[in-house]
Amino acid sequence: MRKARIVGTGMAAPSSVVDNHLLSRCMNTSDEWIVQRTGIRERRVSPDTYRMLLRLAEAPDKIAFMDEVFAQGLDGKIDSTLTVSDLAFDASSMALKNAGVEPRQLDCIVDSSTVPDFAYPHTGCVLQGKFGLTSTPAICLQQGCAGFIFGLAVADQFIRNGIYERVLVVGAELLSSIFDYTDRGRDMAVLFADGAGAVVLQAVESGESGLISHHLHSDGTILDGLSGEVWGTSTYPAISKKKIEEGRGRPRMNGRSVFVQAVRRFREVIGVCLNTNRLTVADVDLFIFHQANIRIIEAVADALKIPPGKTFNNVERYGNTAAASVPMALHEARAAGRIKDGDLVLLAAFGTGFSWGASLLRW
Ligand code: UT7
């Protein structure tokens, strides 16, 4: 039976490392609070955010400094040194190289990025252009942290149905560009960070190896759980000085609500994925969850009796990279020898929307 198989993985993260101690010089937080509540010790951010944080840490009036940055950019410069499509390009290039596939051999690109280079066109198109491709379709998803799972499911349908042979699936984020790194934004700024992950899917006509099933869900009745209005038709005009002054350009999150929903939905969707495939936890070799918070992962693992040795986590080093987190963890798990040929791997993610899902695959 025709299937889609992962033939290459890749990832990219900016080289600037921000530990919890630097954040605690910018806002009223501490290494202890962040590690206890989330398990995050450090994260990668763009060179622009890194320069801003170093300056913010030294600023006598932090709120005034951050307001100045929001109004003027840093030193009056507002063009980014690194964009989300740059990270997507680096992760994708690595995945293509590892797969032995040339960009021109791709039939389709599926990208998921919460905060794009431009409001439109979407990052998938910008990425496609960076590869010098001029007609390959680029599909762009807006599923937040669940984006990569939704992307895998979409790409899989095209391959299974014989429409495409090779599809690049990317999750890329440059989230550090949207946060307020003073006390006002501390609930979210310590969690999220920058990175990208990608896989190349290729059609195979026989064998066990390949994507097996996907289980996707959304619930749009709790929009204020995790949202951002940077620009959008929730206000008129879509972007205005008043909107920015009222802080409505900044992301919002009800951390407790997200935590509770995430644990519940992870449990449900993993249960459905296992039942659908007549499997138990014991049959799965490795679980890779969206890397939002180690406490969410531990709560789900406890509830489903998943032994600690059966999960792969890197949230401690990268924080929450939203759509990039699952493909980054997948790449690192494979590179570290945690996924062997023939292993059964279950991926699961939860994010804004809310949207959540799970994918099962045989490597
Ligand atoms: O991809 C999904 C993305 N979202 C998530 O994964 C978020 C899920 N939620 C969580 O991970 C947790 O809810 C948080 C880590 C965000 C917060 O942990 P919590 O145990 O739920 O803390 P809380 O929101 O109840 O806040 C406890 C206290 C509050 O102070 P008071 O009201 O008790 O005085 C907060 O103001 O901690 C305060 N607080 C902080 N303190 C130090 C909030 N953020 C910070 C911070 N540093 N960064």
Summarize the structure.
The chain has 13 helices and 13 strands.
Structure description:
By secondary structure, this protein is α/β, with parallel strands linked by helices. 37% of the residues lie in helices and 22% in strands. It has helices at residues 20-26, 31-38, 47-58, 62-72, 84-99, 123-130, 147-160, 186-189, 241-245, 255-276, 294-304, 315-318, 325-335, and strands at residues 3-12, 16-19, 42-45, 108-112, 138-141, 166-174, 194-204, 210-218, 226-227, 252-253, 286-289, 344-351, 355-362. The structure holds oxa(dethia)-CoA (UT7). The site of oxa(dethia)-CoA has 18 residues, from helix 2, helix 8 and helix 10.
Features:
363 residues, alpha/beta, Peroxisomal Thiolase, Chain A, domain 1, 5-stranded mixed beta sheet, 4-stranded mixed beta sheet, 22% strand, binds oxa(dethia)-CoA
